[in-house]
Amino acid sequence: MPGYRVRKVQHAVGGHVYLLRVLSDTQQFADPDGHGERIGISSAQWSLFGQVWPAGLLLAQAMQRFDIEGKRILELGCGIGLASLVLQKRGANVIASDAHPLAEAFLAYNAALNDLPALHYRQLRWDTPLPTLGRFDAIIASDVLYERGHAELIDTVVERHALPLAEVVVADPGRGNSSRFSRMLAARGFGMKARRCPMDETDPPPHRGRMLHYTRGPAA
After folding, report:
1. Where do the segments described as Disordered lie (predicted)?
2. Quick one: pLDDT band at residue 219, thresholds 50, 70, 90?
3. Edge-to-edge strand ranges of the sheet holding 136-142
4. Tens digits of per-residue pLDDT, 125-182?
5. Would you give the end-to-end CA distance of the chain in angstroms?
6. What does the domain layout of the chain look like in residue ranges?
7. How far, in Å, CA of 185 to CA of 154, rounded?
8. Distance between CA atoms of 170 and 56, rounded to whole angstroms?
9. Are 127 and 153 in contact (CB under 8 A)?
10. Which of 142, 119, 96, 109 minimizes the C-alpha distance to 22?
């Protein structure tokens, strides 16, 4: 027994239904060797990677429409990784990343569950350089600005891993830290377009969710 319980859920994106193994609820916790604790994942945070959150579904839907031609794409904090699975199904050059010790195993299982090739995955802590990861044409993420310090951390990841001509796409459920993050990317030469989106059926206009699309280069 792995020490945690799982269930399977379905999510439709672009006319295709993805079957996903997720944690059964947000009360699950299993860190027998203390790996999660050593890298700063508390017992309260441990289960958060193992769900498909509304912002993650919003990002996956955006990736169904995203121009992937010739682009190397990095997903930050992928968790269950639905957006990366959508990109993989479309034939994109995508690398999924997360710090959670179980994210890679869940991602591999869910790729197989949907008859997809194994995804490229790298364990990535936002506060630790990983030079071998390289640089990307597009960096995508969902709900990664939930703590004040995360704006600075993601900004630093963008500095390390975005090409001079690059895009950053963030699905944000209305966190207050997104404004600070936008100012940081503006200082790095990124223009920004924001689109309000409903996070779920209980989110009436004006919707609290936003798709933030940053572009650096001639099209900015």
Report:
1. 196-220
2. low
3. 120-123, 93-98, 72-75, 136-142, 162-172, 209-216, 191-197
4. 999 999 999 999 999 999 999 888 999 999 999 999 999 999 999 999 988 889 999 9
5. 50
6. 6-216
7. 10
8. 10
9. yes
10. 109
What is d(CA 151, CA 185) in angstroms, rounded to the nearest whole number?
A: 10
Burial class (CB in 10 A: 0-12, 13-18, 19+), 56: buried
For helices 178-187 and 150-161, what crossing angle results, to 10°? 30
